[in-house]
């Protein structure tokens, strides 16, 4: 992986702590030679991010709430002022009211539906619109994070499954819009991971264990594996891949039912 991203620079959105998928990606990208900038959500996450960003040689951190257009504008203005061009953006952001990530999907409220869609799906479009002018010279890569609950019913994932379906569809539409500019748009779909957002989903520990026991590789996704996939997609090695959903789930998505020993 070393040097695969040498000379490239980009923005990582969504590091909450060292367990965040965005952090796994940031570390792998930095190890591959990329220069990084970060966004964080609010002061408390900013404090957590600071030493992590420093550890990969970055002093570029901007506070962004993706529901606030002004904060997105300010972040991309600052990015453009610092670097006239960028090569990638990683969007690793999702949110839903925890009380609706359990029980029946039928009970999804209008307010949480809209908010979950706004933060977890629509924000990727807002990010793409602001990022692409910074990618006009050399093209670039936009990456987002999704989950299999988008097209298979996963207990308790509920409204987040609908938001991920929208996000995956947006990935394909953005890929088509931005392809002529040499910008590739892809989503990585890891299996369940032990993060803040992951823990908010009802029964997270059971889902994690079930995937670990039954996936063909008999393992869950790791931060390193997701990071490696992001490096590949952002590098020239991924030059002809766009509009794609790449699974990093130990192969779990190919199963029709649990392994015989767990039936
Ligand atoms: P995480 O909690 O570490 O990261 C989620 C991030 O979203 C946080 O940094 C949070 O600050 C940010 N965020 C939420 N609302 C925001 C807002 N309004 N404005 C700006 N930022 C906001 O959890 P994670 O698991 O690393 O999640 C990253 C992505 O990976 C999400 O899209 C998630 O759905 C996806 N994903 C997670 C798993 C899993 O099992 N953990 C599996 C597949 C996909």
TrEMBL record:
Q: What is its EC number?
A: 1.3.1.9
According to its UniProt record, this protein's enzyme class is oxidoreductase
- Keyword annotations of the record: Fatty acid biosynthesis, Fatty acid metabolism, Lipid biosynthesis, Lipid metabolism, NAD, Oxidoreductase
Q: Which Gene3D superfamilies match?
A: Enoyl acyl carrier protein reductase, NAD(P)-binding Rossmann-like Domain
Per the UniProt record, one Pfam family is adh_short_C2
Pathway-wise, it operates in:
Lipid metabolism; fatty acid biosynthesis
Report what the protein is called.
Answer: Enoyl-[acyl-carrier-protein] reductase [NADH]
Species: Sulfitobacter litoralis
At the highest ranks, the source species' classification is: Bacteria, Pseudomonadati, Pseudomonadota, Alphaproteobacteria, Rhodobacterales
